[in-house]
Target: Isochorismatase family protein
Amino acid sequence: MSQQETYKTAGFGQPVPRGMRPGIVVVDFTYGFTDTIYPTAADMSPEIAATRRLTDLARARGIPVIYTTIAYHQGELTMLPWLRKATGMAALVEGSRLVEIDAATGIQPGDPIITKKGASAFHGTALAALLTGVGVDTLVVAGATTSGCVRATVVDAVQSGFNVLVPGDCCADRAQRPHEANLYDMHQKYADVTDADDIERWLISLSDHG
Model:
């Protein structure tokens, strides 16, 4: 039995229902991840450009766009277990350039920014409340890294009651193999992994029929 058949037989990989009230969360496209002068970063410019197509379209149609960043107070650096495992993340200190959203994303002054201390954009934050407050039923998740904060956010989004779509070409990682493996796994268990063109057509169709 092939890998695909194994998953299908087990009941995975079913299509995600798409609602009428989308929202977009852009995970950690901050300079600490996107500007290669920093050791924690990788070149994510194609993924940022693909994401910006969606966020510019969404914003013009009144669809909420929310960004996230990881930022630590100096006093937290020796206390958080994640920073003992992923020591490079300790460079993401409040007030530094590394935690600023990359301007290439097209972020606007009215876009909310969620500050988090771990991988998931939901854990210990107000993200679920913000999305529920504006009636979001289907969440598009983009950003970095695919195998880390994007995946954690997708899992928690499903567990928070949202249908989830992941445009794979809007997600970036430091290496291709974990990127591909995690997209595959998310598609089987938590989300529909698609692409920016598909999401763009869907958002336009909602506007046309809204």
About this structure: The chain has a mean pLDDT of 94. The chain has one domain: 25-209. The two ends are 44 Å apart (CA to CA). DSSP finds eight helices and seven strands in the chain.
